Amino acid sequence: MLEDTRVPDHFVEQAGWCADLGSPFTAALLRKFAEDFDAGGPMYDLCKDWDGNPRKDALALRIAGALHHAVLTGDAPELAAAYPAAKYDWSMDDVWASAGPWLTTHIEHVRSFIQNPPQTNETRRCIALLPGFLHLADTYRMPMNLLELGASAGLNQNWDRYAYDGGTWQRVGTSDVSISTHWRGPEPAHLDTAPIIASRAACDLNPINVADQAAYLRLKSYTWPDQTERLSRLDAAASLAQRKGVRVDQADAVDWLARKLSERPQGELTIVYHSVFLVYPPREVIAQIMQMIEQAGAGASANAPLAWLCFEPESLFGGNRTSPRMQTRLKTWPDGENLLLNESDGHVTEVDSLLG
Asked: CATH topology for 125-211+218-353?
């Protein structure tokens, strides 16, 4: 057995996060991963030579995604019969009775599948970003030129078309995609403001075309199987993206953003936005992106203002480096606003609003 316990420890840690985020199924599955690794089962064979940092690489979620993908595609019918979609009173012993042998038989396929990081394109993050967009729409009253980084399938480009429900407040949308959360604190200001979107653009190193069924099922596989609301919302958001012709450029964020910032139009408010994106690039790339935005901001004018809206880890802004909390921040040029709008978890199951 490996003396290094990073892999099973990661499985157990991620299981705790899944439980906290409302997925008892995924939490139980990842605990099985840890048990099987320690017992020298297929999980040990799959992960014993993992070169990277399992926590940073989200190794547990890669493997969970591989299993869910097999369920969604019909490649593992016995496993599918034990999963939450087919059996609401699922038993993890029954699940593992199918999952373990399937992993053993398909280990090379799974080894290939987990070479790519998970992508979820979590549309719920739009409710954390919404106060920033509304504030900008009310403040500038200009057409918006939207630039999204790390956009995955581009589902969050349609943020203005979604309906929102914070419990104590609502905003009507123009689509059947509805996003809700437990909202604490001041409700967003300017809920009746109608943003004018002049253009939408986005980039990702590995964009997903939701019109491609195989690509879409891979995206869907990373959404936890017992979270039916998230799965239904993903389906609705993907359908809307197809109808609206959402497009994501396959490009390096640094090169793409440099070009877009140099071409930003006069008479429009350019908004660079992203959500849980800056956890993935190397540190030097993160610094380069942030510096690029700051430099572009220094050259902004009243006729071509620039805004930077993001939902990223607290640690990115100099906060607690071990905190799992995410923060929504907004910075604008040339007026110099720098606002902390709200705090939440990675799935935005609840929001602590700090500014109405």
From this structure: Rossmann fold (3.40.50)
